[in-house]
Amino acid sequence: xxxxxxxxxxxxxxxxxxxxxxxxxxxxxxxxxxxxxxxxxxxxxxxxxxxxxxxxxxxxxxxxxxxxxxxxxxxxxxxxxxxxxxxxxxxxxxxxxxxxxxxxxxxxxxxxxxxxxxxxxxxxxxxxxxxxxxxxxxxxxxxxxxxxxxxxxxxxxxxxxxxxxxxxxxxxxxxxxxxxxxxxxxxxxxxxxxxxxxxxxxxxxxxxxxxxxxxxxxxxxxxxxxxxxxxxxxxx
Length: 236
Fold this sequence. Notes:
Elements: E1 7-10, H1 20-35, H2 41-54, H3 61-73, H4 79-96, H5 104-113, E2 117-121, H6 126-135, H7 137-140, H8 145-148, E3 151-153, H9 166-175, E4 182-186, H10 189-198, E5 201-205, H11 214-220, E6 223-225, H12 228-235
Parallel strand pairs: 1-2, 1-4, 2-3, 4-5, 5-6
Helix pairs in contact: 1-2, 1-4, 2-3, 3-4, 4-6, 5-12, 10-11
């Protein structure tokens, strides 16, 4: 899997950090605060995944997603205000709740010791990445985004979010390497599809919040592992 690879690209949410369930809680709190409606967490995640995929060509898919929630649940504030409130609710979770997946930091160190370049390739915002680095001790005591990754590509660096391959094609261009020299680590169906669309090998790592798509993820990924411990064994 890692043989002859010059670059390994890591997705962030659901892959390196255990955050997908947190965003379900954030959206549930947002919906309840602005409408009084209580919505199940599984329903929220599937709705968010569908809408972000539908809005992927828009300049700000997350703003459009907040506009969708406004229309669906009858929020009074504008979609811009809804988005601001969403990130206001998220700050406690970003700073104090979200943590790395078990042994993620050990894989990062093992790959660096092998001389493999690492990239953080996510379509979350730079704001979130910086917040994890600056404020979240569960994360920043184990890894440094700035020091451990040769490049960080976020939502601000692309016009199209996953499953569009842009973020991965940008990584190849930055390092001036071919697709065969790269491996991508993803957890979600849209992430695996983005890797497929870029023509890059992808290993899918299990995440409980992608379980409803696991059959498709396994079918489309080149490799599948249950956890980072499995990947560490392959590096060593």
